[in-house]
Amino acid sequence: MSVKRAVPDHPIVDLLAARWSPYAFADRPVAAEDLRSLFEAARWAASSYNEQPWTYLVATRDQPDEFARLLACLVEGNQAWAKDVPVLALGVVHHQFVRNGRDNRAAVHDLGLASANLTVEATARGLCVHQMIGILPDKAREVYGIPDDWEAWTALAIGCVGDPAGLPEALQPRDLSPRQRKPLSEFVFSGAWGRSSPFVPGG
Fold it and tell me: Using CA atoms, how far apart are residues 93 and 109, in angstroms rounded to an integer?
């Protein structure tokens, strides 16, 4: 089994170091109680004015027809590996505030926070989540009757990490290669754009 733990430059919570997004998932269902807790974690995410502008559409492989419907809402490249995932979900976002009908510029950010909460809860339970932007929003609207003021934005694959050897050959290196991230000096600035903050090494 491939496990890709982060090697952080500075101490972070272990769950964040353990979290990663595999393409290979084990052929093993996710327990209903685990799924309930994952979406409960999403429920308690922070959001602007506590609007909670997210909805999730979920399908499991033990319901083949429903799973096929959701799988069809992914782009072809994601369908190639996501067809073997035990649980798929679509993250759907509401772009207007219910409180006043105005545009909610934080809506997509807040959906991301909810999915991040879900992902950390999944990691704590020995599960993995792979988030995808490669979806077909118009297809999702057609399949699920999504209202005009909502939009399918992302997808999530949920399950236990599997063996990369079962992936299409072109995807195997993605699960096997080391994890890399930009250093803090490239994205934590102070005083002016591009100027590293004083607390950042090299800043």
Answer: 10
- pLDDT higher than 50, residue 1: no
Any idea what DSSP says for residue 11? -
Residue holding tokens 């990490």?
Answer: 161
Find the mean pLDDT for residues 45-49. 97
Q: How many residues does the chain have?
A: 203
Domain of 111 in residue numbering reads as 14-163
Phi, psi of 60 (to 5 degrees): -115, 155
CATH of the domain at 78: 3.40.109.10
Number of H-type helices and E-type strands within the chain: 7, 4
**High-pLDDT (> 90) share of the chain, %:** 92
Pick from 179, 187, 78: which is nearest to 132 by CA? Answer: 78
Q: Which residues contact 107 (CB under 8 A, 6 or more apart)?
A: 48, 51, 53, 93, 94, 95
